């Protein structure tokens, strides 16, 4: 049975949650491989919408294991709120598993993220202020050691690790930010209520995934954020601190590259980005505003309006290569319904040179001009389409062009928010 990676092909918010949720119904396990509470997706429980940041969207499928793997980072307070919220709505969460190796987002990480961003002023990255950068920094710094989920199981170990961390953090807080020092007991107290809720789920996640693979079960490896927020392949330094690309799925879960059968690159039919950084197809006009309003492009995690623009084919071509996409899932195609013409950037022009792919030195993107191809719009609603044949010819031509650029077939097109509003090819 296949191992499938679901990866964001753009700058995040591509609608991976919806695709993962559909795949989860057929899967034995959904494994999130990187990132933390900076992500956000909405699940619908009964008639209520519920926003999740950490728990994979597969949680609603009781028979599907939902695993947060070693490459993720976990905020105990945020996770406990999500578990409690789901339980109140009758979702028991017994299928949740948390890697003991995943690092913990501590309250001081959130504080430092906010202080660092404020200190950067106009040069800020526009982070979600969820403590992502500071937590991964502690992981890679190694000493004093970052705190892992397994450390939450032993009060003595936790206390010693927090005390070690605070020696360094307090020096930074006091001397760089003029902030009052933090107290070990108070920090532990802040997360204390969350611990009995989350620690029962801590386990050897890699062993569980291994068991699924050995039994030939279907496993979905779910990325958060998107390819161009990747620490290595994104628009550095305006990126997140982990590896959303498909290769990150191997790092984050311990599944070997040779065991991956499919990589589904999820791409919105246009482009959005939150936070600072290059965005060659960004629209600063009514058309961009129209995409934002029709696409409800406001962040799930921060509520920030997303920057909107035409589909960036250069980015799509590059991310399909980086991720080894075996197919693409196109989301939010219906948002383009009203437009008379739709544009796709097929090249960038930088310093007199035409580029087909993202340059390695992404600083060059700041001066890039997008070269567009214009396609006719379909100017009618497509949200009722149930099969490829029910899509207008112009809409088919648009997604076919996306497939051509990506060099991978279209697997699915999302034409509305609900699970049913998905056309499978
Ligand atoms: P961080 O991950 O909070 O450190 O933020 C770093 C950059 O990634 C910022 O530009 C954020 O807006 C962006 N980012 C982080 N998570 C997401 C996401 O889930 N969707 C879209 N952008 C994100």
Structure description:
This protein is an alpha/beta fold and 425 residues long. It folds into three domains: 3-102 and 197-262, Adenylosuccinate Synthetase, subunit A, domain 1 (Adenylosuccinate Synthetase, Chain A, domain 1), CATH 3.40.440.10; 104-194, Adenylosuccinate Synthetase, subunit A, domain 2 (Orthogonal Bundle); 263-424, Adenylosuccinate Synthetase, Chain A, domain 3 (Alpha-Beta Complex), CATH 3.90.170. The chain is built from twelve helices and 20 strands. The protein has helices spanning 16-24, 76-88, 107-120, 132-141, 155-175, 184-192, 195-198, 205-214, 246-253, 286-294, 313-323, 393-406; strands spanning 3-8, 29-32, 41-45, 48-52, 65-68, 73-74, 96-99, 103-104, 202-203, 219-222, 262-268, 271-273, 307-309, 311-312, 327-331, 341-350, 353-355, 369-376, 410-414, 422-424. Strands 9-7-5-2-10-1-11-15-19-20 form a ten-stranded mixed sheet, with helices on both faces. Strands 14, 16, 17 and 18 form a four-stranded mixed sheet that branches. Helix 5 packs across helix 6 (184-192). The longest helix is centred in the middle third of the chain and has 21 residues, at 155-175. The site of inosinic acid (IMP) has 20 residues, from helix 4. Inosinic acid is lined by residues 12-13, 38-40, 125-128, 130, 132-133, 224-225, 229, 238, 240-241, 274-275.
């Amino acid at each position: 049975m296949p191992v499938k990676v679901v990866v964001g092909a753009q700058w995040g918010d591509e609608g991976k949650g919806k695709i993962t949720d559909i795949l989860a119904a057929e899967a034995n396990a959904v494994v999130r491989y990187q990132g933390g509470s900076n992500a956000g997706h909405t699940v619908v429980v009964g008639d209520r919408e519920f926003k999740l940041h950490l728990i994979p969207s597969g949680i609603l499928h009781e028979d599907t294991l939902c695993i947060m793997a070693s490459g993720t980072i976990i905020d105990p307070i945020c996770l406990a709120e999500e578990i409690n919220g789901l339980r109140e709505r009758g979702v028991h969460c017994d299928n949740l598993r948390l890697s003991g190796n995943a690092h913990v987002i501590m309250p001081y990480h959130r504080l430092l993220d906010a202080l660092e961003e404020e200190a950067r002023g106009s040069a800020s990255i526009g982070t979600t202020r969820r403590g992502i950068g500071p937590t991964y920094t502690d992981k890679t710094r190694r000493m004093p050691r970052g705190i892992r989920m397994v450390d939450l199981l032993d009060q003595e170990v936790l206390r010693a690790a927090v005390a070690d961390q605070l020696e360094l953090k307090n020096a930074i807080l006091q001397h760089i930010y003029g902030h009052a020092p933090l107290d070990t007991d108070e920090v532990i107290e802040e997360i204390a209520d969350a611990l009995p809720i989350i620690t029962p789920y801590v386990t050897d996640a890699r062993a569980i995934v291994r068991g699924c693979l050995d039994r030939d079960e279907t496993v979905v490896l779910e990325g958060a954020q998107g390819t161009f927020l990747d620490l290595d392949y994104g628009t550095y330094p305006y990126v997140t601190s982990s590896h959303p690309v498909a290769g990150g799925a191997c790092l984050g879960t311990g599944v070997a590259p040779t065991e991956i059968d499919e990589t589904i690159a999820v791409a919105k039919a246009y482009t959005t980005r939150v936070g600072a950084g290059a965005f060659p197809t960004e629209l600063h006009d009514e058309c961009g505003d129209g995409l934002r309003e029709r696409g409800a492009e406001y962040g799930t995690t921060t509520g920030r309006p997303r920057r909107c623009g035409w589909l960036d084919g250069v980015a799509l071509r590059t991310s399909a290569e980086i991720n080894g996409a075996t197919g693409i899932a196109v989301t939010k195609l219906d948002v383009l319904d009203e437009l008379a013409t739709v544009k796709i950037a097929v090249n960038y022009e930088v310093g007199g040179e035409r580029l087909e792919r993202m340059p390695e030195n992404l600083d060059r993107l700041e001066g890039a001009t997008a070269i567009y191809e214009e396609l006719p719009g379909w100017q009618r609603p497509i949200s009722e389409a149930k099969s490829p044949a029910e899509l207008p010819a112009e809409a088919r031509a648009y997604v076919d062009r996306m497939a051509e650029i990506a060099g991978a077939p279209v697997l699915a097109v999302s034409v509305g928010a609900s699970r049913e509003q998905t056309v499978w090819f």
